[in-house]
Amino acid sequence: MEKTDAGTTVGVDDPYAYVDRCDYCTDEGRCRFAVEHGDRDRDFAEVLSEREFQCPVVGDPDETGLSGPWDWKDCPHMRARNRERECVRCGLEERRSAHTDDRPLLEEHHLSYADGRPDQADGPTPTAGDETDAQVSHEITVYLCRWCHAKVHDSWANLDDPASPALAALAAREERRSQERAELAFESAAERRKDG
Predict the structure, then answer these.
(1) What are phi and psi of 127, to 5 degrees?
(2) Residue 134: band (very low, low, confident or very high) from pLDDT cuts 50, 70, 90
(3) Which of 48, 52, 77, 178 has the most CB atoms around it within 10 Å of its CB?
(4) Is the four-CA dihedral 77, 83, 88, 94 of positive or negative sign?
């Protein structure tokens, strides 16, 4: 199982199994990093410009699945941050409290850490087919509820484990739902004046 630098588990055997799409990939299957930040890695941008900036992992967007010659781990600038606002382990949805300092129900969890930001990389980066043993690291994140996050970092839970939300998590979510309903409840001016 993957480990952080501190030695705690990240809860997965293969972080790339949780990558649906790179943050830099457009709907047309083009690499936005090579177009917008090509000056940060000229070799990478030149290779992709010859292919009209088509993502070498996605390939032809008209084909089903990832049809390119690379895998996600081959791309030196791949970054995937999950945007779904529910726990990937137990399915608990986020209920945000807008005007309070309450701790969020969901927390971002890193499955893989980037050594440095892609825009700060020095020199050429390895690309697919290079004969180097360079380990390209990527930022890959998902959302976990606070309770699953604690279990994963205590080194005994896996993201693939069948799990239901903890009772404390369900209670916290329902408390927030009740607060939302109370805030949305209609109260006429006459009722407010009577209460005041």
Answers:
(1) -125, 170
(2) very low
(3) 77
(4) positive
Whole-angstrom Cα distance, residue 127 to residue 175?
49
Q: What is the DSSP secondary-structure string of 24-44?
A: TB-TTSBBHHHHHSGGGSHHH
For 84-108, how does the pLDDT look when each residue is reduced to its tens digit (9 = 90+)? 889 999 999 998 776 778 889 999 9
pLDDT at 196: 58
Query: Of 145, 127, 123, which Cα lies nearest the Cα of 136?
Result: 127
Q: What is the 3-state secondary structure (H, E, C) of 130-161?
A: CCCCCCCCCEEEEEEEHHHHHHHHCCCCCCCC
3-state secondary structure of 51: coil
At 78, list the tokens: 């791949």
> What value does the mean pLDDT of the chain take?
80
User: Which pTM was predicted?
Assistant: 0.73
Residues constituting the chain: 196
DSSP class of residue 118?
A: G
Alpha carbons 170 and 183: distance in angstroms, whole number = 20
